[in-house]
Structures are given as structure tokens and as C-alpha cells.
Amino acid sequence: MASSPRLLPDQHRISTARGKAVRAAMVEVTASANDVSVKGSAKWALGGIIGGSAAAGLLAAGSSALALYFARRVITPARVKVEDQEVLAVIRGGPGLQLILAATPEATVEGVYGFFFDGGRGHARIGRIVSYSPAERTVQREVEAVYSGDLGTARRGYWSGAAYPDPASIGLPSEDVDVDVDGGTAPAWLVRAPQESGIWAIMVHGRGASRQECLRAVRTSRELGMSSLLITYRNDGLAPSAQDGRYGLGSTEWRDVEAAISYALERGAREVVLFGWSMGGAICLQTADLSRYHHLIRAMVLDAPVINWVNVLAHHAELNRIPSAVGRYGQLMMSHKLGRRLTGLAAPVDLKAMDWVSRAVELRTPTLIIHSVDDEYVPYGPSAALAEKNPEMVTFETFDRARHTKEWNVDPERWERLVTAWLGQQLAPRLNPGQPDPQQPQAGEFAPGEPGPAA
Questions:
Q1: What is the pLDDT of residue 357?
Q2: Cα 33 to Cα 40, 46, 57, 71, distances in angstroms
Q3: HEC profile for 309-334?
Q4: Regarding predicted confidence, which is higher, 455 or 229?
Q5: pTM of the predicted model, to two decimals?
Q6: Which residues contact 422 (CB under 8 A, 6 or more apart)?
Q7: In what helix (H) or strand (E) does residue 90 lie, and over which residues does it extend?
Q8: Is the pLDDT at 369 greater than 70, yes or no?
Q9: Separation between Cα atoms, residue 224 and residue 427, nearest integer Å
Q10: Is the per-residue pLDDT at 228 higher than 80?
Q11: Could you tell me which residues belong to the region Disordered (predicted)?
């Protein structure tokens, strides 16, 4: 999820939604009470009953409305990103521009990032921190490039892990291709390897993000001999929307990844490696589990993946001070068939089927998980638990201060080194049954450095 937006707006908006629900319930209860005509002590007795029922009804109505609001925010794509990063000034610093920003948890972390402004039409790449004043709550950073828009007029924007706009911006040629999916075609970028190895990388962005965030992995993929297909999928703003216009949190989007695998196979790929960020990680896990091509998925590289949606949703309920019972009610609305009319989902979302901590032993695809311990959006605990429960298949690497899906941005050299080393092992030529391993000494041979028989 980059770059993924918060599931809910701030507490004020939640309180407003709760207040509207409670006021609506109060109007309904009051109207019902006014229709009742009673006398004497019976009136007072009934008044007590109505008062108690009204209080319970108000509480139930408020909780239900809040749970529904929570559920719908999770599964409804946000078409407009909140520009929550304030720009204080743009100045000339040395050979280029520098940006003075209000200090936020994201803007004060070293690394290279994308900054989007003017409703997403403007895009700049932001580099190192020049100065930081905790007292004044400001941070000054270098502007490495402005790809679109007039940064000088920007007053607000949003921070992103997508530092580059397209393959050309990282010096790589690409092709604009279309993948046949349900409802039409989904645009994708194809970056070919200099020499085809027969293994393609299928790259899947996160919730509310775009294929731009996948550019962080393309150089590594290419150096390993893989062509990269950076895809779009339903409801991301470029691919066709699902009929219900709702996220399936991986339970439906995996079909678009399967379509991308089919596209690759038709063009010479023999196997694929899946890369996924945030919800893209959840989508990859579902693909490896459900796709008819699961046996052709050589490996997966997952960055800050959603391993257990129940954990993530509980975390966001807590962040927004939503009572845990109300949060669980919201989950029930998403996962139960009777909740479809309220949520707008065409089919329930099976959250239990996407709990890979509980299903750890069922994961049979070699998987590298990279996750920052301070991830504020998708807690890293389930990633660690999955690796602990299935060490044969899962390798787990932690980062610090990278927050959500920005591990590459904080330390690109380490990210690329880890992925290259791990994938290099996974992509090594497989031995046929009975074929000797060329790296192991055979009978009558001696390993390098091992003394031979005495003369």
C-alpha cells in the first residue's frame, strides 16, 4: 500500500458519522414514543421502558453505523488522495531546488521519495535532508527532480514511496501493453531483460497505490535476467473496475494477476516470480494459493505484505479509537453474506482464508518477506509469525524507520542486495532427478582446498 492511504479519515469525521447515526436513531425513537397514548402510572412505566429502549437503541444504532462506516472505508477505493503534507517554501539551494516542509513522521526520514501535489498531477523526487529543526517543526530537503507540475506553486501534497514516474525515468526502455482481464484490458509496463531467461517478474502494487511503486524492483529483476511486467488491477483507477466497485482485499484481485501470468506465458515465459507490496502481497499469496498456474510461480518477494487482514483491521480500529467490538462488527459485515447489501460487496470477503499465520503450513512457494518493524499501516508481527511457523518456505528480513512499504526508499542498496542474493538462490538451475550437483564433490573427487590422498 506505498504510499497506501489510511483506511479511515481523522477522528473528527468518525465522530461526525457516529453523531449522525445517533441523531437519526433518536428521531426514530422519539417519533415512536409520541405515537403512544397512555395515562397515569402506566405512562410513567412505559416511559421508563421507552427511555431504556431508547438508550439501548441509540447505542446499537451508533455502533452499527460506525461499524458500517469502517467496513465501507476499507473496501471502497479512494479516488482522491488526501494532501496531508504541508509545503512551507521552495527555495534555490546550490545547483537545484530545496523544499521546506512541515516536519512529519514521513518527511523526517532519510531516503529518496516521491512527492505528489496539485491533486496528483505534479510529481517530484525528494532526496536527502539538508536540515531539520524539531523546535520549529520544519525539515529542509533536496529536490532531485521535478517530473511534472510547478513545484513553486505547491502548498500541500502527499508523500509516496513512488519516487519515479515511469521506466524511462530510471533509464530503462519499456513497452505499454494491455492484459486481458475481466471487463476489458488492464494497462501494464513491460520492461524486457537484455537476454530472456524464461522467467518473468509480475509486480503487484498496493492498495490505493499505482504501478509506479513497483519501479523500485525493476533494476534488480532485470539484473537477474527477468523481464518485468508492472501490472494494474481492478479498482486501481487504470484497470477496469469490478462490477461492485469494491476491493476484495486480495480475494478477487488475484484473478488479474493470473491474467498477467497468462500474458507472460503466451509470450515465452516458462515461470514467474511475484513481487507484491502491502495489499499486493495479499494478492500474490492468493494467486499462489488459487491460480491454475500456482506450480509455475518460482518464488515471491513480498514487501510489507498483509499476511492477516483481521490483524490489520483491528490495528486500524485501534488507531482510530474505534471500540474493538465495533471493529469486529465491521469485519463481520464484510465477511458475511448478509452484509452485502450494506457494504455493496458482490460477495463476502473471506478474511479467514487470507490469514496466512493460521495457514502457514499451506504456503509451499519460496517467499522472501521484507518488513519494517515500525510499519504504521500493516504491523509486521504476522510477517514474523509466518516466517517462524514455516521457516522452510519463508525468509524474513526486517528494516528500521522505513514505515510502510518504504524499505527500498530508506536503504535501496540493502534492499537490492537482499533480494538479489535470495532470488539468485531461488532462480539457480534446478537439477534433474539423478543429476549430480556440480557444486558438490563426487566420488573420487575432492572439494577445492581439501587435501588429496597421500602420495
A1: 98
A2: 16, 9, 13, 32
A3: HHHHHHHHHHHCCCCHHHHHHHHHHH
A4: 229
A5: 0.84
A6: 301, 368, 395
A7: strand 85-93
A8: yes
A9: 9
A10: yes
A11: 426-455
Quickly count: other Cβ atoms within 10 Å of residue 300's Cβ: 27
- Tell me the CA distances in angstroms from 272 to 15, 75, 202, 246, 319, one per residue in order: 47, 29, 7, 28, 37
Q: Which of 120, 166, 115 is nearest to 142 (CA)?
A: 115
Please tell me the distance from the alpha carbon of residue 131 to that of residue 109, in angstroms, as a whole number. Answer: 12
353 phi and psi, to 5 degrees? -65, -20
pLDDT digits (tens, 9 = 90+) for 111-137: 999 999 999 999 999 999 999 999 999
Contact predicate 91/108, CB 8 Å: no
Name the nearest CA neighbour of 363 among 307, 410, 406, 319: 307
Q: Which stretch of DSSP H or E encloses residue 275?
A: strand 271-277
Q: What is the DSSP string of 222-265?
A: HHTT-EEEE---TTSSSSPPPTT----TTTTTHHHHHHHHHHHH
Question: Could you tell me which of 179, 184, 194, 193 has the C-alpha nearest to residue 273?
Answer: 193
Q: How far is CA 122 from the centre of its chain?
A: 22
Kind plus residue range of the DSSP H or E element containing 398? strand 394-399
pLDDT at 419 over 60: yes
What pLDDT sits at residue 436? 59
For 151-193, the three-class secondary structure string (H helix, E strand, C coil) is HHHCCEEEEECCCCCCHHHHCCCCEEEEEEECCEEEEEEEECC
Nine-digit cell at 42?
402506566
3-state secondary structure of 430: coil
What are phi and psi for residue 217, nearest 5 degrees?
-105, -5
Q: How far apart are CA 261 and CA 6, in angstroms?
A: 30
Do residues 194 and 166 lie in contact, with contact meaning Cβ atoms separated by under 8 Å? Answer: no
Place of cell 528480513: 397
CA distance 382 to 378: 9
> What are 298-328's pLDDT values in tens digits?
999 999 999 999 999 999 999 989 999 999 9
Q: Do the beta carbons of residue 252 and residue 218 sit within 8 Å? A: no
Q: Give the count of alpha carbons within 13 A of 400, CB side only.
A: 0
Confidence of residue 42 (pLDDT cuts 50, 70, 90): very low
Is the Cβ–Cβ distance between 85 and 104 less than 8 Å?
yes
Q: How confident is the model at residue 40 (pLDDT cuts 50, 70, 90)?
A: very low
Residue keyed to cell 493460521: 358
pLDDT above 70 as % of the chain:
81
Share of the chain above pLDDT 90, in %: 76
